[in-house]
User: What shape does this take?
Amino acid sequence: MPLIDVGGVRLNYEERGSGPAVLFLSGTGARGRTWHLHQVPALVQAGYRVVTFDTRGIAPSDTPPVVTMPDLIADAAGLIERLGLGPCRVAGSSMGARVAAELCLQRPDLVDRVVLMATFGRPGAFLDAMTAGERALRESGTKLPAEYLGVVRAALNLSPRTLADDRAARDWLDVFELPLAGETDGAASRLDADADADRLMAYAQISVPCLVLGFADDLIAPARGNRDVAAAVPGARYAEIPDAGHYGYLEQPSLVNTELIAFLSEGQS
Assistant: This one.
């Protein structure tokens, strides 16, 4: 994946295919290549030019001490401009969806339509508590065993249906025991991206076509919160994926890709 300078920050990106452009925005700690497991091949086959990237804070992209929401928005906008993608289709999950929504508000000229997955307009009590707990753990300097972290990550991000399947659970636990991006060198950027901000009222100003995808078993961004976002965005469509947790686009890729491609392709001749 090549590095590109965007406003003085180097971002590690990759593009595949040709046709109308789609930019994917990843959630906290997730690499751009996460989308290459299922979504990128499906969209390339459907005739799209797909761009993914490692956000600021995840090496080999630049890793400053602190990464803010304005940083993430500027990086997405700058990448669209540098690569000549705009106005393009944008899809994001979790924090990536929050960035995508803010991009629609600040730079609607760059966005043709947007897909918001596993998102929220305001954080719920559980997400607030989880964020505070993770902050306290980080500040304490305590290092939890990889085996325990794997179990916690699986429980938080996957559907109970997935975890009830022993073979699938073992495969996922192997993945979740691996360090998150930036953990191995001890110098990961600190994300200060306004996850606690209430943006529901602001979303009423989003003017581009919008699809909100909620995952029925999501603990981090519950389906209820996704429905609230869809209700706040004028004309937005809502779809809910069953048997899927926070990583629903990886757990139920066929269902997600069907919704994604149908929405992105609307109006194409």
About this structure: The domain at 3-124+187-264 is CATH 3.40.50.1820 (Rossmann fold). The mean pLDDT is 91. The chain has one domain: 3-124+187-264. The chain has ten helices and ten strands.
